[in-house]
Amino acid sequence: MRILTVGNPADSLVLRQKAALVTGRMLRTDDYAVLRRRMLATVQDPQNSGVGIAAPQVGILRRMIAVQRFDKPGEPFEFYLNPEIVESSAETAPGREGCLSIPGLAGTVVRAQRIVLRYRDERFAEKTETIDGFTAVIFQHETDHLDGILYTDRTDEAPTPEE
Length: 163
Ligand code: ZN
Description:
Elements (H helix, E strand, L loop, with lengths): L8 H7 L14 H14 L8 E3 L9 E5 L8 E12 L3 E8 L2 E11 L1 E7 L5 E7 H13 L14 E2 L2
Antiparallel strand pairs: 1-2, 2-3, 3-6, 4-5, 5-8, 6-7
Bound molecules: zinc ion.
């Protein structure tokens, strides 16, 4: 599955757009099942594996992300629809971040240590969850993608080659 990258001007235009809400009706379509499968295959591709992915990164401008839950047993990838960060802790910490759409590079970004996330699950039920630590950072990074924001917008430091 091709991933959109910032180095490609046409891709970059898509990555910079605001994604539209997912509706409950979409969840029952074949398109949704295909998108879900594509996102998972892309983020788990051994060639360029990631810890999270947002639908715009595979060219679909919908508010849908997959995040690897390092805070859960087995560290599963889970899908979140229409995610919204409704609270962020005042406590922040810097951390290195990479992005499948900015291949080969990483940068240091300061993020909230704890967030409260409101979202729809894959049955379209509304949920609210408090998430801490590294997993909270992934949620902040992926949710930004839905508004056309990249981690490089959140730091003054230029990204450097990934270690
Ligand atoms: Zn990213």
